[in-house]
Amino acid sequence: MKRAMVGSGGVSDGYEVGSKRQRMMESNPYFAVGSSGPGGYQPYGYGSGLQPSGFPVVRLRGLPFNCTDIDIIKFFAGLDVVDVLLVNKSGRFTGEAFVVFASPMQADLALNRDRQNMGRRYVEVFRCKKQDYYNAVASEVNYEGIYDKVQPTSPPGQSWKSIDKEQLEYTEILRMRGLPFSVTKEQIVKFFGDFNVTKDKIHIACRADGKTTGEAYVEFASAGEA
């Protein structure tokens, strides 16, 4: 179990996932699970009546299969792109990507690029759920083998208590690894019984097929509590 850094397109748990992604996750509050950003961010809206999500990430679909992160940055010329996560399945690009911007307002402006062309293909740009983004990051890290795969079998309250304190990073977001695949939010709430943790502050990472990965993210009121 390691402390997660939240912010730039990914999760840093002491391993090198991407320096830009790592730096942003140390400081960007919009990546906090259950957060809508400082001050309840309320930018100007669009004629569609959609409410801004407060999460500075959009999802792209229909990208050319030879697309690179540079192509995506050019596609969003004029906007402040912080990070690009190309979605792969079994090592092959799926034509989807997640794009991290410097602020929710930038992400809202990016929605105006929906159905614009990249080469001969038009690209869909739409809002991104935090859960989908975290799942994509977890899948990327697992596939690349950046950390050891864990086959958790112990019940809650036993395997979770093995913590390497030297490797913890102090933020309000706690990343849990090695959880039983059958773990529930209720069990995690009970595990942190001494803290005011609620189910809406817990994110259990899942693969595309709906199966859990053995990881979860828990948001605390402060870094001190975490």
From TrEMBL:
GO terms for molecular function: RNA binding. PROSITE patterns: RRM. It holds the Pfam family RRM_1. Gene3D superfamilies: 3.30.70.330. InterPro entries: ESRP, Nucleotide-bd_a/b_plait_sf, RBD_domain_sf, RRM_dom. Keywords: Repeat, RNA-binding. Residues 56-130, 172-226 form the RRM domain. This is RRM domain-containing protein. It comes from Opuntia streptacantha.
